Every structure is written in structure tokens, then in C-alpha cells.
Amino acid sequence: MNLEEQIGAIDAQVDRLSELVRLAQAAVERAQTERAEAQEAARAASTAAQSAAEANEAKPTLRVARPSHNEVTLSIGSQSVTLHPEQIGQLIEELANARASMTPEPPMELPAGWRFASTKNPVIGMQKQANGDRLLIARHTGHGWVPFTFSPDAAVQLYMMLSQR
Question: What are the boundaries of each domain within the chain?
């Protein structure tokens, strides 16, 4: 190999080394960028977790008070609202309608220690439905008008239960 060929080979090797150095520098820059992005994501996740923990700790609770015979005060955090009998009836109706569509359903058995207010000799209404079912509506002093639908068989069973001595 003559001198010109050797110089050409050295130039080619220098060009190749320069390209490898450029590629290595680009890889280092990419790694630094990815590391910075990962650190930022970790900081953001930590901040979000801390915010969620603080939100859970600061979660407001519902408080119910009865300042007088005909009103109830509901408080959530620092916000309060006083409800009068008509508003309480409306709230009960809305809550009952919402609860009826939720799962799980209320338990089939009465829970031990369950407290209730019963209505003696309630006002009752009855309607026969087109499919033979009976709609029984009873007026509870606390819950208001409470509707129940009975199939013909269940209506007979109810009658038998109520007429037993």
C-alpha cells in the first residue's frame, strides 16, 4: 500500500470515528432527555399522590343536626343548609328514587338493632293494574307515600298474613 492509499485509509477511519462520536453524543443527549422526562413524571406522580392523600384526609363529612322540632340542618365541611318539613320530604323522595336503582340492594333481612319509626293505621290507597297486579300505596309519617306493587299471588298471601289471628 502506498502512502496515498494509507492516508486515504486513515481519512476514512477518522471519518468513521467522527461519525461514531457524533452518534454517541446524540445517544447521550437522548438518554439525558429521557431521564429528565422520567424524573419530571415521577415528580408529577408524587405530587398527584400527595394531593390525593391530602384530599382523602381533608374529605368533608356529613353532619346532621336538629336545631328545632320542624327543621334539620345538614352540614358538609363548612357548608350548611337548613331544611323544613316540605324540603325534607322532597329530599327523602329523591334519595329513595336514587337508592332504588343502586346496587347492592338493601338486605333482605332486617339488620340487628335496626331503628325505625312506624306509622299506626296508615292511610292506604289501592289501584288494580292492567296486568292484574295491585298497587298498594301507604302513607308513612316519616317517608311519605310509599308505593308497593303486588302480583295477584302475593296480594293473596298478604291478605292471608293480615287476616291471621
Answer: 1-59, 60-115, 117-165
Which amino acid, residue 59?
K
pTM: 0.56
What is the spatial distance between Cα 149 and Cα 84, in angstroms, rounded to a whole number? 30
Instruction: Give the separation between CA 100 and CA 90, rounded to whole angstroms.
Output: 15
Write out pLDDT tens, residues 59-87.
788 999 999 999 999 999 889 999 999 99
CB atoms within 10 A of CB 60: 10
Output the CA angle 27-29-31, nearest 5 degrees: 70
Cβ contacts of residue 87 below 8 Å, gap of 6+?
none
